[in-house]
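User: My instructor asked us to take a sequence, write out its structure as tokens, and then describe one feature of it. I'm not sure where to start. Here is the sequence I was given:
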Amino acid sequence: MKITVLEPLGISEVELREIAKAITDKGHELTIYNEKTSDIEVLKERVKDADALIIANSPLKREVIEAAKNLKMISVAFTGFDHVDLDICKEKGISVSNAAGYSTHSVAELAYGLMISLLRKIVPLDKVTRDGGTMAGYRQNDLYGKTLGVIGTGAIGKKVANLGLAFGCDVVVYNRSKDEELVNQGVKYMDLDDVLRNSDIVTVHLPLTNETRGLISEDKLKLMKKDSLLINTARGPIIDNEALAKALNEGWIAGAGIDVFDMEPPMPSEYALLKENNAVLTPHIGFATEEAMVRRAHIAFGNVDGWMEKKPQNVVL
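Assistant: Let's start with the prediction itself. The structure tokens for your sequence are:
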């Protein structure tokens, strides 16, 4: 079979081929593209002979999938898979797997990096220090003792909740189902509105679905405390980012740490959140540690190998 890696996966081709040996040693052909492209015609040419594709987070549109006449399996080297046109995959009977779990620690750690950066004013105080200034005029706050609201207690949300307990936070969470291990550790489940009302810090860890798109709306933001912080390392469209910019500008909340947006960076200069000084923004880096890149490559190729051996894993479609 022909397996095609459609875009860079964050590690060298030498490392990828070593990870893929379980597949290539069985005689399967592996093609790796080391340059990312959004050119539809180039993508069509790349996929035309593939039996299986490995992609990261670039959009995989209907017309590209339709051009892959032999395609039977897509391994998404990413936790989210909403950038793949699943409708055409269903129509063609194409199996889709993801790389759930590869960035659990990485994303959780970034969420805390954003929290602490906001609480300790690290970004503005870096500039103040370089300019010869002092901390005068900048409030400093502990994470310890804060009420941490976690929206979504899947693998990443659960890790964030556990870390919150270790930091000495009171942890409250919202999720459709309860994790009894968290309950036994003292984590309190509440409805979404109560989490927003009661939390000093709210951090979002949900997948993007029709139900979660725009979940944190203007009305929901108005429920939050005026001195609270909002963190998003999940998916950008879960939050109404125009409303968030308004909330920051008008002081409904005290600050935000945002790694994901309505689009992939680079952001246009007029994007509202870029103008807010009480926000720490990062260009979708939550998943992107060197260690996570290696983990996801192992998972992505393992998904292909499992599918070929009729032992599919991490299946989302």
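For the description part of your assignment, you could build on this observation: The two ends are 21 Å apart (CA to CA). Try explaining in your own words what that tells you about the chain.
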